[in-house]
Structures are given as C-alpha cells and as structure tokens.
C-alpha cells in the first residue's frame, strides 16, 4: 500500500502531465453566461472513463511496476478510472466497491475486463477489503485520493486550466477525500500568501462539498482528518467518510477555502447544466456550479471543474 507521507509538489504535477499525456484527453473550457454573470467551465466529464479520476489513476499506475496486479477501492469513478487505465496499459486490476455502488458505474467497470468485488455498505468497508487483498505478493494498492501520485495526477486538470486561461483567478472543485482539491492547490503553486483560499498570484482554490457529506470541511475545522457522516445525492462520488491524510496536509498548507451546498442546490445546478448547456453531469460534477449559482464563489474570473458524468440520468425538468 502506498504511503501517504510523501507530499507531492508542483513539479510532480508537471511530471504527471508529461507522463499521462499520451493517454488522456485535454478537455476543453466553455465560457458561459447565466443570470448576467459569466463563468468558465472545465469540461472534465468528457475525459476518458467519464471523470477526472483517470488522470490520478494513470499517473499512479505508470509510476510503479507494470507487472503488478493493481487493487483499489472506490465509490465508482476511481474504480472506473483504474479499470480504464488497466485496459489502456495492458495491466490487470481488481476493483472493490461498496454494495451501494450505482449500477451505471459498476457496469462500466466490469466492461473494462477487470475483476469487480462488491463488499460492505460504505467506501471505508470496501477500502479495508481492498487493502487486505493488496498485501499479497505482486499486488499493489492504488488509493483513490491518499496517494502522492494520484494527487499529482489530479493536479493536471488545474494545470490545463491555467495554460488555456491564464486570467483565471479562482478554480472551484468538488471535494470528496480531497485528492482533486489538493492537486489543484499544488498546480496553482507555492504556499498560501496570507488571504484564505489564495495561492501566489492571487488565485484562489475553492473546495465544495454537500452539506451532509463534508469530511474535508470537518477536517479543516478540526485541524486534522476526522470521521464524518455520508448522506448526499452525490455520495457515490464524494462519499469519503474521512479526508485523506495527504490531501489534508496539502490543503491545510495552502489555506484552501471550503464551501458547502445542499442536495437541492446540487440537483438544481445539475438540471440547469443540462437545460442551458446540454451538459449531462452526475450530481457531484454539478457541486461547483451549485456553489457559484448561490454566490459562494469569490473571484472575477472563476473556473468550475465539471468533473464527471458516470450516471444513468435524465434531467428532472
């Protein structure tokens, strides 16, 4: 099992971008207007595997022996990312998921040709079983967010945003265990410069969670990872009950702003993404948009990461 004690840096994000470039899509930005306000959307739901998670999975899998059997645990998107990466790289993998995994995600994981194991009612229970299985010789555990290579890989999303739109002053992401938020903070670079949620150059990082699925928010308030309840329409993607040790360390050092949104706000934002822009996002991917619609996102030129679309879904309008 990979140790979360090796904290990645901005240079690790750059190295990850080079490493995964042959296998990932450079997803586009969309400049939109709603209610007289403009905002950029990073369309990461168009990524292979249907979410940003492929970036971290690829970077971690390419950073270790190619003949390892990769074992992971996931609420769905990371598992699908590992399964997709295994197919792309010719590696073998086993994905542990809770029994509550959405069938849309389980079906796609199995379609990649990897082994799917349903275990427990929560991600934590599936992760415990995966960690035990990975202890066998020739097996390697790839954690969905508490892994330096995974965090660095997720940071390539923000690196692309800044390359394509250098005037962006705020990057907004949905948070589960904290991997994407931590990678975003690294990509923006350096330590905090005195203003909460602000990186050097005046850029802000905003991590948004559901009100009742808020392990990162609770960790930042408590001064360290702590157990939190998991109860949200977006729980299959943001359902970590405890923030990762490594993401927490990165985010605490960068003073990332934490924002909460309600499930009704998430679903309304998801439906508006479809109605206005024909973006078929899963609930978790609409979380940043929900925060922006509610006026909880600072900045003059924000970019919201629409992070995934792995759901069987029809809009409720």
Helical residues, percent: 25-40%
- Helix run count: 12
Computed Rg: 18 Å
Q: On the 0-100 scale, what is the average pLDDT?
A: 89
| Classification by helices and strands | alpha/beta
Counting DSSP E segments of at least 2 residues, the number of strands comes to 10
- Strand and helix order: HEEHEHEHEHEHEHEHHHEHHE
Unreliable spans? 190-198
Strand content: 15-25%
| Strand adjacency order, main sheet | 1-2-10-7-8-9
Largest sheet: 6 strands, mixed
N- to C-terminal separation? 45 Å
Principal-axes geometry comes out as globular
Give an overview of the whole structure.
The chain is an alpha/beta fold. It has helices at 10-20, 53-62, 77-89, 103-111, 123-133, 148-164, 179-188, 215-222, 235-238, 245-254, 263-277, 287-293, and strands at residues 29-34, 37-42, 69-73, 92-97, 115-118, 139-141, 170-174, 204-210, 257-261, 302-305. The strands form 2 sheets. The protein has a 6-stranded mixed beta sheet with strand order 1-2-10-7-8-9, sandwiched between helices. A 4-stranded parallel beta sheet has the order 5-4-3-6, sandwiched between helices. Strand 3 (69-73), helix 3 (77-89) and strand 4 form a beta-alpha-beta unit. Helix 1 crosses helix 6 and helix 6 crosses helix 7.
In short:
It contains 12 helices and 10 strands.
Give the SSE map.
Elements: H1 10-20, E1 29-34, E2 37-42, H2 53-62, E3 69-73, H3 77-89, E4 92-97, H4 103-111, E5 115-118, H5 123-133, E6 139-141, H6 148-164, E7 170-174, H7 179-188, E8 204-210, H8 215-222, H9 235-238, H10 245-254, E9 257-261, H11 263-277, H12 287-293, E10 302-305
Parallel strand pairs: 2-10, 3-4, 3-6, 4-5, 7-8, 7-10, 8-9
Antiparallel strand pairs: 1-2
Helix pairs in contact: 1-2, 1-6, 2-3, 2-6, 3-4, 6-7, 7-10, 11-12
